[in-house]
DNA sequence: TTCAAAATTGCAACCGATTGTGTAATTTAT
DNA sequence: ATAAATTACACAATCGGTTGCAATTTTGAA
């Protein structure tokens, strides 16, 4: 495999009867090399099809121009948007991306972190798995002062920055909206609340209830894996409740959609019988009938912000420990699925 | 940035009073190193937190254990599924992923190819941009015998393998299905037919018409960028047709959905007035009302197959030039959006 | 013409790991 | 007990590029 001669700066040097040093400097536009020589080097390099060896350079410079990304899943609308955003921002600055998915397993997450470390990524962007209990598997990075930025699914750590939305506030707004629509019995479908995003959304949900003097009921919280199928499952649980709840606030859209479809099949009317609010503003929210009220939360932007911050740390513009948390805007988008009162909002 | 001592095999060697050679071999489980020594090395390496330097190794071995991926967009359901599949297969075999998106621009595609080449990826997995005219920007790879595998959006080349579905056949089946449902005037919404996928789907569409003695009409083909918005635009064009078409075959689901939603808003009934078939089996097909008939086309599997083949080339199991094309299964999934005749199929 | 200052370029060590070849130590066979 | 065969480890070169410092050449003013 992979034969055919590799063109190196030594080959160029030999052909030009100069030293590899000069070639190296010429290629980097170093000021101590004369214009004529630079031109000769550049021309021959082009002609010979020279391509710099990233590894040799990384080895010497201790800098790889590569950013590692670890996410729970690659194939969700939100995550792929984030990654697209990261890719754009990183590419602009000449960084490459090394990507791995943890598949929601903290074990795989740790393994990926090791691989990334071995690959000497300059920095790491991470969204944690459902069950990651602590940040022990990133300690190598912290020790070596390699910046690690967490986004969306985060965890507090003195040496790293978190980028996310105000999940508590967003959930508060979502729940309040349902209450304002006349709902009193509101079910919350979410994931295990170990992860900040779900814990905070639950908190916001509770706070809204409390503010409107509605008693929180443990059995109104349904814990799932938030898949569409899980939403259909949750529908069964909901159908057994007597009386039926008047509203459902789901911690993501696909789960909300799964639940809505299952309920509709059983003849439940949405929003008349049960109003729905989701989370994420996935494309599917504008397709389902009725369109789903949700929290808009632009993944692409989060990705860009995360990448830009990481790169600004790397170029020494700012330091990781100086920024603790970055909160991005989120917004409640009201659609038909939650409008019990015509003309409201 | 990134200070703190780096632990190398030399540090381990010094502490153990042996040579770096022995440490290196011990870590690789080389047979000429005694069990005792290996144990000592492994223990100390663990204790000192030694992590192999990927670059030094790559530089020496001329092998990076990294696969490059270039796709038009990361944030589509299909592509992120493919990538998830690639990630799984690659990770199993100890390969890392370097990922870039071309944003449908052949210029960015070429730039990414250069970066990948500089990073000395062991192989490349590519899905081409809309407008890529030829494979010139991959010539470096071909010259050096670095395997390049194209998937989905492919182009013929003697030195590379293509992995895709039989788009012509799938489109033929989709169109025939519409015809069997009683449609005669069938609109085809697609993208510029420079790319194989769209060219072949158009061909299948034409063949089905021809087989049923339906005259092909140029004005029944609508060229778009296949976004959901483009689907809504296409709906306007369709509404101007007199008489209205009886069926629409769209080259992807999101475009079909955009079109359906826009038509429904104008009071068109689906499938009674116009039947719909999409392509891809995106999650949204099971959400829209009525559920969308489509071609199922498992991205995850394509990713796995592509990665496994690439890796088998890399490990010398097979050679690129021996396999030309791999066709994966696709399947027409009939749902309510196309069922004009009750009880059919 | 002369010599120091400025402009160019080269030498050689280094980044961390791998490996062909050689040598010393130990074991086996006779 | 001694030659022969293993076993266990080390030397030194190598992968391709970078960089501090020395060396050489050019320039220019005296």
UniProtKB/TrEMBL annotation, chains A, B:
Keywords: DNA-binding, Transcription, Transcription regulation. Residues 7-61 form the HTH lacI-type domain. GO terms for molecular function: DNA-binding transcription factor activity; transcription cis-regulatory region binding. CDD domains: HTH_LacI (cd01392), PBP1_LacI_sugar_binding-like (cd06267). SMART domains: HTH_LACI. It comes from the Bacteria. Gene3D superfamilies: 3.40.50.2300, lambda repressor-like DNA-binding domains (1.10.260.40). It holds the Pfam family LacI. This is Substrate-binding domain-containing protein.
């Amino acid at each position: 495999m992979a034969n055919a001669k590799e063109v190196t700066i030594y080959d160029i040097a030999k052909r030009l009867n100069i030293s590899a040093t000069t070639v190296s400097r010429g290629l980097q536009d170093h000021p101590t090399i004369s214009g004529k020589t630079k031109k000769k080097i550049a021309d021959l390099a082009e002609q010979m099809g020279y391509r710099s060896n990233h590894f040799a350079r990384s080895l010497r410079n201790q800098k790889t121009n590569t950013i590692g990304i670890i996410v729970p899943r690659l194939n969700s609308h939100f995550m792929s948007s984030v990654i697209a955003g990261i890719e754009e921002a990183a590419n602009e600055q000449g960084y490459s991306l090394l990507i791995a998915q943890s598949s929601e397993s903290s074990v795989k997450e740790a393994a990926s972190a090791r691989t990334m470390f071995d690959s000497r990524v300059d920095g790491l962007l991470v969204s944690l798995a459902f069950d990651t209990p602590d940040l022990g598997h990133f300690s190598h990075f912290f020790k070596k002062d390699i910046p690690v930025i967490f986004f969306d699914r985060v965890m507090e750590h003195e040496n790293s920055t978190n980028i996310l939305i105000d999940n508590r506030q967003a959930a508060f707004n979502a729940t309040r909206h349902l209450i304002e629509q006349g709902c009193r019995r509101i079910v919350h479908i979410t994931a295990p609340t170990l992860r900040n995003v779900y814990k905070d959304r639950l908190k916001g949900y509770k706070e809204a209830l409390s503010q409107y003097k509605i008693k929180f009921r443990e059995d109104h919280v349904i814990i799932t894996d938030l898949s569409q199928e899980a939403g259909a499952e949750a529908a069964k649980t909901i159908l057994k409740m007597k009386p039926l709840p008047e509203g459902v606030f789901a911690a993501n859209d696909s789960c909300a959609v799964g639940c809505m479809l299952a309920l509709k099949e059983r003849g439940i009317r949405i929003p008349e019988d049960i109003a729905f609010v989701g989370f994420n503003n996935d494309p599917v929210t504008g397709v389902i009938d009725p369109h789903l009220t949700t929290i808009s939360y632009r993944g692409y932007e989060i990705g860009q912000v995360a990448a830009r911050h990481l790169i600004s740390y790397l170029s020494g513009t700012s330091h990781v420990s100086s920024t603790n948390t970055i909160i991005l805007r989120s917004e409640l988008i009201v659609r038909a699925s939650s409008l019990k009162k015509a003309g409201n909002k």
